[in-house]
Amino acid sequence: MTPNSSLKLSPARLALVVLLILVVAALRVLPHPPNFSPVSALALFGGAYFARPLLKSFWGRLLLALGLPLVSLFLSDLVLGFHGQMTSVYASFVLVSLLGFLTLEKRTPLRIGASAVSGSLIFYAITNLTVWAEGELYARTFSGLMASYVAGLPFLENSLVGDLFFSTVIFAAWGWLESRAVASAAIVSVAPLKEVR
User: Fold this and answer.
1) Is the N or C terminus of the chain more exposed, i.e. has fewer CB atoms within 10 Å?
2) How far is it, in rounded angstroms, from Cα 184 to Cα 156?
3) Which value, to the nearest 10 degrees, does the dihedral of the CA atoms of residues 54, 60, 62, 66 take?
4) Closest CA to 126 of 106, 101, 155, 102
5) What is the number of domains present in the chain?
């Protein structure tokens, strides 16, 4: 086994990624507190995971990183229904994926936590700005903008808790699975098969 063979996008890993997308979509559809969702954690994970040399093409890795949360969002929106905030919501998660792609190639608990908090703030800033800019709920003034951000604070709290929780779960579970896969591969490559006579 070569040092980088554990980093390849094997069929088993691809199946786990597809399963992760489906689980996140399902969790978004099931009842949950507002903004307590694993989508941002999936966006960070996709960015971090595909920043690694799984594919030779930088653009291919970037498209896969961005695709994880967008596919999950789209699948869940097929059930939940499409809405006027879709552009800002999807754009927010694209930025969160880019954040993971750029900052989480080397993952530590502190970096993952800081990126999860940053992702929550990105989502909060963009979606509340969009609600204000529509002009239906808030006056298009500075005080209207501030009112939009103040009204969004309870949602930000749920986002922070959810993003930290789901980022911990996804990154820890994936790390555990990868360590098991590497250990299994090392055992297979080190232990020669005995001839049976």
Assistant:
1) C
2) 41
3) -100
4) 155
5) 1
Residues in the chain, overall count: 197
What Cα–Cα distance (Å) separates residue 53 from each residue in 44, 65, 66, 129?
16, 12, 16, 36
193 located within any domain? no
Question: How far is it, in rounded angstroms, from Cα 42 to Cα 70?
Answer: 10
Rounded Cα distance between 141 and 62, Å, is 37
Q: Give the pTM.
A: 0.82
- Structural domain including 102 reads 9-175
Q: What does each C-alpha distance from 10 to 22, 92, 133, 167, 172 come to in angstroms?
A: 18, 29, 44, 23, 20
Q: What is the pLDDT of residues 28-67, one digit of tens each?
A: 999 999 999 999 999 999 888 876 665 567 777 788 888 8
Specify the CATH number for the domain of residue 103. Answer: 1.10.1760
- High-pLDDT (> 70) share of the chain, %: 84
Does 195 map to a domain?
A: no
Instruction: For residue 180, tell me if it sits in a domain.
Output: no
Positive or negative torsion for Cα 89, 154, 44, 77:
negative
